[in-house]
Backbone:
C-alpha cells in the first residue's frame, strides 16, 4: 500500500511500497523508552509490509463514488431525453412528464447513496465537500427538469414554442457532456485539457440557452400581447424552468473546474 500526499490529504494506492508517512507511524509506535528512552530501530522490511497490510485492513474501504456518479449522470441524461420528448407536445405529453418525475426520484436515491458514502468513507477520491457539491449540483439539474414537467401538468400544456424545443435539445447536449466529464475525474492530471474543454462547452451551451430564453419571451409577448395574458404567463413559466436547468448544468461545470484546480 502506498499513500500519495495531495495537499493535506492522502490517497491509498494498491502497491506494496511503504511511504515515509505510514512507515513513520509504525516507527513512532515502537519505542523502548522504558529501557533506553530512545526510538527503536526500523522494522524489518517484510514485517513492515505485513503491518501495512494489517493497517489497510482496518481502513474503511473506499466507496465506488465514480460508479455512483456515472449512474447519476445516466439518470440525468434519461431525464433530459424525456424532457426533450415532452417538449415535442401532443397527447403523450403527460406520459413524458411522468417519466421525468420517475428519473428525478431515481436521481434522488443515488444522491442519498453518495452522501451516505461520504459520511462512511475514511478515504475519498477527492475532498468531501467537493463530492457533496458535485452530486448536489447534478441533482439540482434534474430537479429543475421535474419543475418544468410539473408546470406542464399543472397548466395542461400540450403545445410548445420552437425555442422551447431547441432549449430541450441543448439540455440533452449538456447532460451528455456531464456524462463524458465524470469518468475523467478518476485521472484528473492526465485529463485536465479535456475536462477544461468540456466545462467550457457547458458554459457556452448555458449561454445559448439564455439567448433562446430571451428570444422566446420576446416572441411570446408579441404573440399574446393582444390575446390571452394567461398563455404568456404559462409560457414564461416554462421558459424560466428550462433556463434554470441550464444554469444548474453550468453549476456542475463550475464544480468540476473547482475539483480540477484543487487536484492539479
Residues:
Amino acid at each position: 500500500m502506498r499513500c500519495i500526499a495531495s495537499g493535506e490529504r492522502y490517497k491509498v494506492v494498491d502497491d506494496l511500497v511503504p511511504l515515509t508517512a505510514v512507515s513513520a507511524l509504525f516507527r513512532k509506535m515502537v519505542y523502548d523508552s522504558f529501557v533506553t528512552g530512545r526510538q527503536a530501530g526500523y522494522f524489518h522490511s517484510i514485517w513492515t509490509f505485513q503491518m501495512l497490510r494489517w493497517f489497510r485492513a482496518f481502513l474503511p474501504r473506499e466507496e465506488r463514488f465514480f460508479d455512483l456518479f456515472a449512474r447519476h449522470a445516466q439518470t440525468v441524461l434519461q431525464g433530459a431525453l424525456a424532457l426533450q420528448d415532452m417538449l415535442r407536445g401532443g397527447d403523450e405529453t403527460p406520459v413524458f412528464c411522468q417519466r421525468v418525475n420517475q428519473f428525478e426520484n431515481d436521481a434522488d436515491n443515488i444522491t442519498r447513496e453518495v452522501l451516505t458514502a461520504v459520511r462512511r468513507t475514511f478515504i475519498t477520491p477527492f475532498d468531501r465537500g467537493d463530492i457533496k457539491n458535485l452530486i448536489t449540483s447534478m441533482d439540482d439539474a434534474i430537479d429543475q427538469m421535474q419543475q418544468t414537467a410539473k408546470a406542464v401538468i399543472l397548466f395542461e400544456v400540450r403545445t410548445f414554442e420552437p425555442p422551447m424545443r431547441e432549449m430541450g435539445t441543448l439540455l440533452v447536449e449538456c447532460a451528455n457532456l456531464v456524462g463524458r466529464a465524470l469518468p475523467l475525474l478518476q485521472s484528473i492530471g492526465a485529463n485536465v485539457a479535456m475536462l477544461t474543454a468540456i466545462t467550457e462547452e457547458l458554459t457556452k451551451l448555458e449561454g445559448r440557452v439564455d439567448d433562446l430564453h430571451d428570444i422566446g419571451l420576446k416572441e411570446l409577448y408579441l404573440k399574446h400581447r393582444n390575446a390571452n395574458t394567461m398563455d404568456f404567463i404559462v409560457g414564461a413559466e416554462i421558459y424560466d424552468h428550462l433556463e434554470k436547468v441550464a444554469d444548474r448544468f453550468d453549476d456542475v461545470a463550475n464544480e468540476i473546474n473547482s475539483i480540477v484546480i484543487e487536484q492539479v
Summary: DSSP finds eight helices and two strands in the chain. The two ends are 22 Å apart (CA to CA). Confidence is low (pLDDT under 50) at residues 1-44. Helices lie at 20-29, 45-57, 65-86, 93-120, 128-154, 162-184, 192-224, 229-263.
